[in-house]
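ok so i was messing around last nite and threw this chain in just to see what happens. nothing serious, just curious
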Amino acid sequence: MAKQVKSVGELDRLSGLSDPVLCHILSFLGTKDAVRISILSPRWRHLSASLSVFDIDECIFSVRHENRNNFKNFVDRLLYFPNQSSLKCFKASHFAFDGDYSRLYGWICAALLGGVNEIDISSDESLMLPPFLCTCRSLVTLKLDIYGDINLPSHICLPNLKTLHLSRFDLSDGSDFRLVSSCLVLEDLVLELVELPRNINFNIHSLSLKKLVLDFEGLIQEFRRDFNYVVVINAPNLIYFKYADLLAKGYRLSTMDFLVHAEIGIFRFDKEAAYDGNRELCAIDLLQAVYNVKSLCLTIEQAETIIQMPCEPLLSFHNVVELRIYKKFVDRQGTWVIEFLHCVPNLKTLHLVQVLQGAAERGIKPLPEKLTSIVPDIVKSVDLLDGLWGALGAISSWTYVLDGVTSTITLLISAVNPITKSITYGMIEGDLKSQFSTFTIQMDATQKIVGSTVHLTVSYVKLTEDVSTPQAQFDMGVQVITELGAYLAQA
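result:
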C-alpha cells in the first residue's frame, strides 16, 4: 500500500486521495503514460502494479529491441504481483510476446486468476489457450483474433460474458455454437473471417443479443466459404446487425423490432460452383428480416438478378430514413437502385458509393504505393509488410528523402476510425528511432462540399533534450498530403 503524505504549504489534493482513486484516475490514461507518470512521486512509484487496464502493445513499440526482455520481466512482475487484484483489462498481440507463447499463456492465466474482466489477444499463429478461459466467471469481454485452429474444451460456461469477438478462427468443428450458447447474457457478438462448419445450419439463438456481426467477406476471395447451409438467427432484441457472405441456401431470422442499423452484404458465387436459381428468393428473405431498420447499408453483387422490378410489396422499409448503397463495377446498369428507392418511402438521406472492385487485376495500385509516382522526389519506396492497406494492424516500410538524406521508417496503423475519417500511424523501426522514443502520425479528414480538409498531427517523445523538433518531417508530411490532394482532384 502506498503511503499517504500530508501536504505542506499549498493544498495538495492528490496526496489526500486513496490508492484506488488514484488508480482509477490513471486508468483514463494509456498504459504507457500511466507507467511513466507513476515515477513523478515516491508515493505513486508502485501504483503501476495496480493499473486496471494493461495494454502491452501500447508499451512495446516504445521499447528498444535490446530492452524487450527486461520489459517482459516487468510484465511478469506486474501480473504476478501478490497484491494485484484490480486488473480489469489485459491486451496483447504477437508483437508483444515475440513468439514466446508459453509466457503469454502464463500472462493470461495470471490475469484470469486475478479476476480480469476483459481479455483481448491477437496472434498471427495458433495459440494454446488456458482451458479455464472458457469457464471464467469474471470475464465480461473476450476478444480473440487468432489465425488458425483453436481447441475449445468440452465444458464451456461464461455466465457474465457480454461481449464476444472472434476473428480468423477455424471453428469448423461447430465449437462456436457451443461458445455462444454458453453465454447467457451476451449482448455483443462479432464473428469475422471465421471458418464455420460446412453443410449444416448456422444457428445463433440469443435473447440478450443487441449487436451481431457476421462478416465473412474476406474468406470469399480465398474460396474458403461454403454456402450450402441455412442461416438461422433468433435474436429479437438486436439493435445492430451486420451480415456479409455468399448467398446462403436459406435464411430464417426472427423479427427484429428494435433494429436501428443494419449492414447487408451479399456476394456472388464462384463461377464454377453449382447455382440454384431459387436463391434470389433467399436474398429477399434476408432483406425482409430487417424491414424494421432505420439505417440500412447494402452491398449486393449482381443485384439486378436479386432485386427485380417491381420489388414491392415483397420489400418495404417504411422506417428507413438513411440508406447507403455500395455499388460494384459489375452492377453497371444501376436500375435496381432506382427500383429499390420505391421501397423506402420515408427516406431522408441517400449515399451512393462506387466500389473499385478487382483493382489489382486491372493494374490499379493501392494509394500508398502510388506515392512513389505522385511525389517521386520525396517517397522512394513503399512496401506492405503485414496486413492490408489502410487496415488496423497493417505494417508498412517507407523510404523517403528529406533534405537530401535518404531515410527509412516502419509504420504500424494503430488506430482507424471510419466514422471520424481518422487514421493513426506509429513508428516501429527506422532512422528516427535514434532521436525519438515514440513518433506518431495522425491524419483526420473533414468532408467539405467539394473535397476534404486533412488535419495532420505529429506526436513525439525526444530521447534527449538536444534533439530538434521534427518540423522538417511535419513540413514534408504537409507537402505529401498537398500533392496527393492535387492528384486526387484530377483523378
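not much to say yet. The domain at 367-490 is CATH 3.30.530.20 (Alpha-D-Glucose-1,6-Bisphosphate; Chain A, domain 4).
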